[in-house]
Amino acid sequence: MVDLAEILAAKDAFALSRISKTIRSGRGIYPVLKPLLVYEDNHLLTVFKPPGWLSQPDATNDLSVNEIFAAYLKEKYEKPGKVFCAAVHRLDRPASGFMVLARTSKAAARLSEEIRTQAFLKRYFVLTQKPLLAMGRISKKITLMADMQKIGRIAKRATGRAAPLGNEGAGGKYYVLTAELKHQDKTCFGYSVTIEGGKFHQIRALFAAYNAPIWGDVKYGGPALPKFRDRIALVCNHLLFNHPTQEKKLLFYLPEPDLARLPQYFI
Prior knowledge:
Blueprint: H1 4-9, H2 16-25, H3 29-33, E1 37-40, E2 44-49, H4 65-76, E3 86-87, E4 96-102, H5 105-116, E5 121-128, E6 133-134, E7 137-138, E8 141-151, E9 154-157, E10 173-184, E11 189-195, H6 202-209, E12 234-242, E13 249-253, H7 256-266
Parallel strand pairs: 4-12
Antiparallel strand pairs: 1-2, 2-4, 3-4, 5-11, 5-12, 6-7, 8-9, 8-10, 10-11, 12-13
């Protein structure tokens, strides 16, 4: 589907400064972005977002995937005027992985409804330096739960302890995820992660709350990556959803060999 070595191992190939300069020049963005394209039809794009790119506009005024792939569509199809291109879900700036962008307002509305009703399934893969523990032992599969509160630009436990099931917590938001250990070596532990809902820094905050912050996520106390400062070892590696206008499901995923190579791209 995608060449992870080209996207993750190459330090400057998809640097935002280079992408922005190419877009401002008015030509040449189509071949640059082509390696990131996973699927395309008249209603949507599925792309692999490199680390360091915004998934939606923010106060920095840096280009987001919306503007970047709108420029791709404008150049490829020689479209005059403004091009509609809108991400239907978020992915933190230092994270990477699959994202879906709607090409029409109808597709955006229908995909957003899938996300609201939890029919749009996402799975993530993360690398940590420390393991998740249960009863003092490395856990093969564990559900993390905590009452969290957004404080500035991070999320922390609101109560200082894990929240019980069925309790939304006092003054915070109830975060839940399930993590399954898939990889273990001398440098890291690799987890397949599914989340309930889609709250602010849900995966990053919960792993940190359970004393296993993600590699590269220094904001949450994680160890710095030796080669990169613009990324964390969190990848959206699996998407499954209904096509917004056709009676078919779309599945995008990184195969096991690619997941096994993730440590060498980050650490």
